[in-house]
Design brief:
By secondary structure, this protein is of the alpha+beta class. Helices cover about 25% and strands about 20% of the residues.
Length: about 100
């Protein structure tokens, strides 16, 4: 459930197993956009879903439906699971004193 930036530091070949990349998109008018704030929360929710649900197979990931996200089978493939939900604007950053 690492971000693309963090996972780019991993040597995929040395893992010796298939990697499934989850993608979380906010959709509006059929277009999809990754909003970093929401994607980070969704990755955390997916990790929790895996741990609490004792997920053991890639197909079990398809049932993830937290935070309004649902699998979009038309955008997904064997190595990438795309979850979408209607667009939500990220909250404004809080000012610090």
């Amino acid at each position: 459930c690492a971000s693309v930036e963090y996972f780019s530091a991993v040597d995929r070949a040395s893992l010796g197993l298939p990697v499934i990349t989850p993608v979380f998109l906010e959709t509006a008018d059929d277009a999809g956009k990754t909003v970093g704030f929401w994607a980070k929360r969704a990755r955390g929710a997916l990790a929790r879903y895996v741990a609490e649900g004792h997920i053991t197979t890639p197909d079990d990931l398809r049932g993830f439906d937290m935070g309004g996200y649902r699998l979009d089978p038309n955008r997904s493939d064997q190595g990438k699971l795309v979850f979408t939900r209607p667009y939500q604007k990220a909250p404004a950053a809080k000012a610090t004193k």
